[in-house]
Fold these 4 entries.
Entry 1:
Amino acid sequence: MLEGYAEAAEAVTGLVGRIPDDAWDGPGLGEWDLRSLVGHTSRAFVTVLTYLERPADTEDIDAPEGYYALVPAMTGEGIDQAAVAQRGRDAGVALGDEPAAAFAALADRAVAAARAADPDALISSIAGGLRVASYVPTRTVELVVHGHDIAAATGLEIEFSEHTVTQVATVLARTGVRLGHGRLLLDALTGRASLPPGFSVV
């Protein structure tokens, strides 16, 4: 759980550190420029730091896939696209004049906080109470997915370990099953059908 998050944080931090100075205002993802995309990615650290300071009394979410299945902003149900886009831009601005250094500092703090946390501790998230061990893997998903987005936008390379990729793929597959797409995923993975254009579980 934690090692995947730490490894993903190190890989993405290394990638961000290699972004040329003149690329930050260039294309990122969708309506985001690169700074906004990196800012959005940094929220994988910011939310860990924030939520670890917010104890919960009840466990409303039982697993990482439960988080993704419940959060409207992740499933696309009722999502306020403008608000999501603005949060990304705001996070990019918050990285300041030295965005790569600010990103690295956030990564160090978040990984250290996650290491110090009790995996069984209940914390409050946007979707409800869940254990640290259920929340942190969702941030690993964000780091890996958006790490690839940053790499695609910059033409730079990034690699994640087989362990981390397996962890992310497992969370996403379980999310798909929980959302009712189990048969579709099985057929696609065994060559019996293709996924619909634009198919996503997040």
Entry 2:
Amino acid sequence: MARDISIYPRSETFLQGRLRHAMTITEKAQLEEILSDQQEAADGTVVLEAGRLYDKSMLLTSGMMLRTIEQDGRQHIVGLQVPGDFVDLHSFALKRLDHNIVAVGNCSVAYASHADLKEACERNIHLARILWFATLLDAAIHRQWILKTKQLRADACAAHFLAETWARLELVGMAKADGFISSLTQSHLADICGTTPVHMSRMLSSLREAGLGEFRRGRFYCKNRQGLEAFGRFDPGYLYGDDSLGIGDELAPE
């Protein structure tokens, strides 16, 4: 990974731990080249607005971003993006999103124009399928969020989210052995788990007392990862973090 960082500074975390091994050197270089426009976004910035037309998509290189929907005067969190995620690749096909993208903490992104993405996909169907996989991965995570908010109590839902975020950051080399650091707040967790900040505070206290981790000022610390995952009924299979994954081998470039 250290070598990727020096050669591909904007895209080294894209599908790291998943399908990056299936990308050829040419494909990695091609993606790095089209991600030429780099920008910063401060905490709370609405980076993309629902309903607006866009002609480029962004890869998150540092920080976190939320997918949010505003309804009845309230902002609802419907997704979380971590470094390495192609945040709005959906807009390449849809041209506009049905939700906002909001920065959590200070973020860095790299943009690829839709014209360059179109040309890259037309020239290399294998790369197109890899980009397609990235959008399908977002959908798999979203389905789990829906399931867990329906299936679990708030404390178990929080445990699942914390375990998931830990695993996602671990895949891109941005987690610690005992947890992770983020710009997330208890209010964010409450919204994600479908409860109130006051109730979430009690649920996090319950997790702490059970020895399943402590969340404070965005820092999550846990010495019992197995217990956390069991309590949150977290099975990482839907994250597809398996280096043995292959995609369209019959379409792989020679």
Entry 3:
Amino acid sequence: MKVILKEDVHGLGRAGQTINVKDGYARNYLLPRGLALIADEKNLKVLEYQKKKFEEQAKKKRQDAESIAERLSALELTIKAKAGEDQKLFGSITAKDIAELLQKEGFSVDKKQINISEPIKRVGEHEVEVKLLSNVSAKLKINVVAE
């Protein structure tokens, strides 16, 4: 029996796939639990419509992320921190600190999206990567100045 998976099923397939399964497995397990639909003409048309809609949403999301990435690349943030001898900071600048500054600038970026290659423990100019989507990221310049 051909079915369309509504959700990911371990060992069987991903949501949206059309697969062949045994009749009993489909009737007794997949269909009653709402994990699949019978692959008839009507359901296949609905699936195609949903795929197109999903692709349009993904395209819009990517365009939004790219525009935010351009604005972030042009932005230069300044952070004041307490520093001691040799321009070393007491502590370090974390992703949380950068996320809070970006929030004040009007960007909604989670601290998990900020990738700091090495800890920021010195006064000076540093570069941080902000990963907006899996394939869209921006380089952000951070100036750390002593208080």
Entry 4:
Amino acid sequence: MVKALLDFDRSLFGIINQKWSNPLFDAAMPFIRNQFFWVPVYLFLLLFMFLNFRKKALWWVLFLLAGFALTDILSAQLLKPLIERPRPCADVFTSDTARMLIPCSYSFSFVSSHAANHFGISMFVFLTLKQVGIRYLWLLFLWAFLVCYAQVYVGAHFPIDVLGGAILGLFIGHRTALIFNKQFGPLQLS
């Protein structure tokens, strides 16, 4: 069962990383997966929070950062060393064929910290701001998915790595949002 799942994972990686490649994605995906590319989004979110929720904004930011730290610590320092799954560039079955659009990292691959972080942020923001009535808040999940897809496309992770990271991030984001909402109540525009 595990072998069949890993074979499927490697096959799906090959499709995304090689068969679905094109010059536009080759140029864009390394930027999309880079956390610094999204700094304007993070700054806008902080500005929005402090302009609209002055009293609760600092606590909101602290909870967001706590969730981010939890996803990062659990993915990078607990699960990756525990599972020790090689990245596509170091995997015996894919190292010769993987298209690497970024330098190969020889750290472990499961779970993806990018996926955990972005889905954790998305879930936290969604659950704490959904009462505000922002129409396109669901786009946060599309953003997180795009980052995850880029991770596979550039050769950094296998699909199961990003799926595992997404599940971890959704769980942590959900829990931190529940604690925030219970402690401070739902956010409302005045």
